[in-house]
Specification:
The protein is mainly alpha-helical. It has helices at 9-21, 26-37, 41-53, 74-88, 108-127, and strands at residues 24-25, 57-62, 65-70. Strands 1-3-2 form a three-stranded antiparallel sheet.
Length: 128
């Protein structure tokens, strides 16, 4: 499986918006989050297109309006971030997904799926 591209902090903020709210136009993204980042609408559109180029977002036209959606599931993106953190900390095993049980972004089902991804990846690493 291909590792998802690591999002920047700002891209992660945008991804969380898509994971929570589903498909959004650039204007809707601007209203929800970009104003708080101090971005102009053209900056928001530029960042959305860069994220699409990285494979983090997909775009479709709906009644002549560009609508974006997350193309990477949150478990895959967060799992990749957790694996990188484990590697940076030179840990022997993966971080336990249960450490994030208080997250408002992750459901109990997400945490179980994240544990499965991390355990599977740890098993693949041991096999090497």
């Amino acid at each position: 499986m291909t590792e998802p591209v690591a999002p920047t902090d700002a891209e992660m903020d945008l991804l969380k918006c898509f994971w929570r709210d589903g498909d959004l136009s650039a204007r809707e993204v601007q209203t929800r989050i970009a104003d708080g980042l101090g971005w102009t609408s053209s900056t928001t559109r530029t960042v959305l297109e860069r994220m699409r180029g990285k494979g983090l977002l997909a775009r479709k036209e709906v009644h002549g309006i560009a609508v974006y959606s997350a193309s990477q599931p949150k478990v895959a993106v967060i799992g990749g971030m957790m694996k990188r953190l484990s590697a940076m900390l030179e840990m022997d095993g993966p971080l336990p997904a249960s450490a994030f049980s208080g997250s408002s972004l992750l459901t109990a089902e997400d945490i179980r799926a994240l544990d499965e991804v991390l355990e599977a990846d740890a098993g693949e690493e041991k096999a090497k």
